[in-house]
Amino acid sequence: MELKFLSEDMRKEIDRYVEAFPTREQAIIQSLHLIYDKYKDIQQDHIQELSNYLKVPVGLVEGIVSFYDMFRINRGARHHIRVCKNLPCHLMGCKGLIRTFEDLTGEKVNQKSKNGRFYIETVECIGSCSIAPAFMIDDDLYNGLNITEESLNEILSKYT
Amino acid sequence: MKSYLNIPDLNANSDINLLLRRAKENRTVWIDEYITTGGYSALKKALSKFTPEDIVVLVEESNLRGRGGAGFPTGRKWRFALSNPAPRYLICNADESEPGTFKDRIIMERDPHLLIEGMIVSAYALGASMGFIYIRGEYPTGARILRKAIEESREKGFLGKNILGTDFSFDILVYRGAGAYICGEETALIESLEGKRGHPRLKPPYPVSNGLFGKPTVVNNVETLANIPIIVAYEGYYMNIGSAGYYGPKLFPVSGKVNKPGVYEATMDITLRDLIEMAGGIRDRKRFKAVFAGALAIYSEKDLDTPMNYSPRGFGGTGTTIVLSEDDCIIDSLIVIAEFFKHESCGKCTPCRVGTYEQLNILRKFQEGKATEKDIELLGYLGKNIPVGSICGLGYSAPNAIMNALSKFRDEFMEHMKGRCPAGVCFRSK
Ligand SMILES: Cc1cc2nc3c(=O)[nH]c(=O)nc-3n(C[C@H](O)[C@H](O)[C@H](O)COP(=O)(O)O)c2cc1C
Ligand code: SF4
Ligand code: FES
Question: Which domain holds residue B73?
Answer without folding.
Answer: 31-240
